[in-house]
Structure formats: structure tokens, C-alpha cells
């Protein structure tokens, strides 16, 4: 029951965020989005070409977010589902690679200055490294290692969701100081996820009594 609840929660939050991003940036002016409207208050900020890079980030990030659970929470692979799993994996890795690279550009203009920018840049680097290391492991037929590192990869993908969950809490804690809250959430949104998934991985190791997972 616990596993089913976790899976249902991940699916629900991933698809709710995807729907929000599609509606906000697909049907309304990006100027009305909370973060964009905040950045436009600065006379030094120029919407173009930043906004076009942001759209690439949103499309590829949302794609990775909604594909991930289907590959992670899958039934045992058979020949019929193996090809679909592999195809979705290619799309997932490609989406993260593109999103991670363009995010490095976006991090240079992050709200909150270099503190937030560094936090997001580290997220992008770890995101791509965990994803591609999992690809390396499956190329060596290490399926268990591949799954572990894909869990870490998706934990970082899910930072898009946890950022939106943590931000209003931090705003309440710091009296509406958006800059401070955003600087903190730029690190918390992904480091917290990694700590949680590492705890899950270690717990599964203790339960299975296998060799330690790397």
C-alpha cells in the first residue's frame, strides 16, 4: 500500500506541474508568470533571448518529468515492453541533456544572484551526470546500477516540483523575502531530493541484504 501511495503521489505531482507549466506558458503571456513578472521589475533584465531559452527548458524539463515515472515504476520487462522502455529512456536522456545545457545559461541570470545561480548550475551538472552514468551502466549490462542511478536522476528531475512546494513555505518563514527564499530553494529543491532517494536506496539495500549499492 505504501509503495502504491508513493507512486500515485509522484505521478499526480508530476502531471499537475506539467499541466501548470503548459497552461501558464502555452496559453497565457509569459509576462504574467510569477517569476518572469518579478524579473521584469529590474530595468537591467531583457526578456529576449532569455524567454526563448526558458521555453526550451520548460518543454524538455516537462517531457523528462512525465516520462520518468513510466520507466521507473514499471512492471518486469518483457520483450514487448522492453523496446518501449528503451525508446522512452532515449527521450528522457535526450530531454535532460538539452534541458541541462540550456539551464546552465539560465543559471547565469537566476533571480537571487550568484548564490541561486550556483545552486541551479550544480543541479544541472548533477542532473546530467547521474543520467549519463546510468546510461553507461546499462551499456555494461548492470541493470541494478542503472536503476539506482536513474532513481537519483529522477530525484533531480523532480526538483522542478519540490521547488514549487518549498518556495511558498520559505516565503512564509522569511516574511515574504523572495530573494532569500529563492536563494535557499535553489539548493534545497534538489539536495533534499537526493537525501531522500539515498535513504530509500540504502533502506532497500538493508531490506534485500545484498551488496551495498553504489
> How many β-strand runs?
0
What does the average pLDDT come to?
A: 86
Query: How would a crystallographer describe the biggest sheet?
Result: none
Structural class: mainly alpha
Question: TL;DR?
Answer:
The chain is mostly helical and 214 residues long. The chain is 80% helix and 0% strand.
List strands and helices in order, with pairings.
Layout: H1 2-26, H2 34-39, H3 50-72, H4 79-107, H5 113-139, H6 143-157, H7 159-173, H8 178-208
Describe this protein's structure.
- The chain is an all-alpha fold and 214 residues long.
- 80% of the residues lie in helices and 0% in strands.
- It is globular, with a radius of gyration of 18 Å.
- It starts with a helix and ends in a 6-residue tail after the last helix.
Top keywords for this entry?
mainly alpha; 214 residues
